[in-house]
Amino acid sequence: MFTWGVSTSAYQIEGAANEGGRAPSIWDTFSRIPGAVANADNGDVACDHYHRYEEDLDLMKWLGVDAYHFSIAWPRVIPTAKGALNKTGLDFYDRLIDGALERGITPWPTLYHWDLPQAAQDKGGWNNRDCAYWFAEYAHAMGEKFGDRVKNWVTINEPFCSAWLGHLYGVMAPGIKDLQIGINASHHLLLGHGLAVDALRQVSSDFKVGVTLNFTPAIALGDSAEDLLAIQYADGFDNRWFADPVFKASYPKDIVEAFGKEVPIHPGDMEIISRPVDFLGLNYYFRQTVQYDAQAKPLPYKVINPPGVERTGMGWEVHAETFTKLLKYMHKEYGIKEFFITENGSAWDDKVVDGKVDDPNRVSYLERHLDAMFQAKAEGVPISGYFAWSLIDNFEWAYGYEKRFGLIHVDYQTQKRTPKSSAYYYRERIKNS
Length: 433
Ligand code: GCO
Prior knowledge:
By secondary structure, the chain is of the alpha/beta class. The chain contains 15 helices and 13 strands. The strands form 3 sheets. The chain has an 8-stranded parallel beta barrel with strand order 1-2-3-4-5-7-10-11, surrounded by 4 helices. It binds D-gluconic acid. D-gluconic acid is lined by residues 9, 12, 157-158, 214, 283, 343, 389, 396, 405.
């Protein structure tokens, strides 16, 4: 059976930031830095999913999805990052998981979607190797607590964003701009993933455990030697840096060399990072165009935005054929046994008109990307499910509430949910599948 689902993440939707014993995460801290987030938005209230989860589960039931991919907020369940569990926080996820199951929806949690407890950051965060071990303990505790009802687990979501956007470019929490720290963070995130795989397998041999990686394939305007180099570096930085350790037990040599830094690998780390997973959670949004630039740091290329290209409200190129190609490539190159598309979607400038939200651009994006995915599946790529990003409009990180990715519109003044045309489209598509 093919799994149809929707995705969200804790900090982006839950709100209730100061309730039920939740401690601050690095995103609570980062969003207070002047200029860090558009309009000085933060996740204090977000979509108030913490209180409105029943309504949101009802919407999922109406959509007809089989599964709900959400994330557990580490600072809600272990406010000090390591040590005592917070019962009130666990109770929320108990209600959410039970509510999903009552509606025939399979819960699919991710354990880390970027909301590191600030308490962990205060001890160095992902720059500190110990963080990987704190994460594994937390993963073990969640497996024990929810494993009677939760069988599918994603360890870490998009280590690319945590590592590079959070520690190299500083545009996401914790807002650090340092290549060496970025490299350390990437390695410790991947190590945390591997340790969490072991921790979850220790709890139960029937868990299905995977990791979610995002992929951004690159093209160049021409095919000169420099163009090819630019593509190679972009692919190495965005894609291979994370996929190679997990599936080939090594970092890409060309990128390690070009960085000219040490990766803090201890003996045995690469075996842990490359522990067999049951599936790859693959996130795809767009492709990028790159150009060689000898001066660029940390690698000699830059991303360019050629005109005449169809783009979403994020400025991301819409290119569904790349999705098919990427899936076929990942299957062939890495021999992955099972794929779930854990995120795919688009942001547009949606407006409520007469109580309705018509979003033909999102419908078109969704339709073309579903077709592209099924094309790859028809050509033999083992894809078992698709989760649309996102169920509802939410806190889009540094873009705040300006960018809307939901199939369902949220009015942040009233918290009213309004299904967009794309929600009706998705519902029909699921029904007819
Ligand atoms: C991700 C992000 C989501 C974003 C989405 C759109 O995993 O990339 O998890 O949180 O909202 O990708 O940018």
